[in-house]
TrEMBL record:
Pfam family, any one: GerE
Residues in HTH luxR-type domain copies: 144-209
Source species taxonomy: Bacteria, Pseudomonadati, Pseudomonadota, Alphaproteobacteria, Hyphomicrobiales
SUPFAM superfamilies: CheY-like
BP-aspect Gene Ontology terms: phosphorelay signal transduction system; regulation of DNA-templated transcription
Positions of post-translational 4-aspartylphosphate modification: D63
InterPro entries given in the database record: CheY-like_superfamily (IPR011006), Sig_transdc_resp-reg_receiver (IPR001789), Tscrpt_reg_LuxR_C (IPR000792), WH-like_DNA-bd_sf (IPR036388)
MF annotations from Gene Ontology: DNA binding
Keyword terms of this UniProt record: Coiled coil, DNA-binding, Phosphoprotein, Transcription, Transcription regulation, Two-component regulatory system
Name recorded for this polypeptide: Response regulator transcription factor
Coiled-coil positions: 134-161
Amino acid sequence: MNLGAPATRTQKSTVAIVDDDPSVRKAISNLCESEGFDVVAFSSTAEFLRWSIPETPVCMVLDVRMPGENGLDFQVELAKSHAEIPIVFVTAHGDIPMSVRAMKAGAIEFLTKPFRDQDLLDAINGGLAKSRMRRNALEMNAELEARYQSLSNREREVMDLITKGQLTKQIAATLNLSEITVKVCRRQIMTKMQANSMLDLGRMSEKLERMRSGPAELR
């Protein structure tokens, strides 16, 4: 499949810290800034929700227990809103059931305070790597969709039959077209979709089908 990775570019990574303790926010902010990350800090999940998430890799460091709030419940809320932000949980009051729940719901790590700086940085880097991969996948999917949208309705019909294994003569009969017209459409499809072969085109078609069936880590 001739999609490749998006063009390499410097991507600033952001760490979003959500913790009601000012001293914890400050300590984690200083640590992350020393590693070159952009940092935003919030005292509550409500503050976080007012933030405009940037179009760059993001990882959240989230306290489990805050006044009137539960970080684990917020994790579920974010997932329901399709805000796919990797989360590193930190807590002074963790237990095994709590950590199991967080990890099953997709958390990157569950750290108990006090934790080693390196453990937190390792978890954050893991979250940012996941965020980066997801954003790259989104870009690649958007590019593939744009190629498909550039096809005419007729070309889409022909592509559908090609990827179902029909030969030129069969496609011509199915769509009531001349074989020459089908061949012209085929060339146009290969050019617009930037497909190197029929196998390549088939993979693109399968990818488009998966994209339309839902996220599931972008299929």
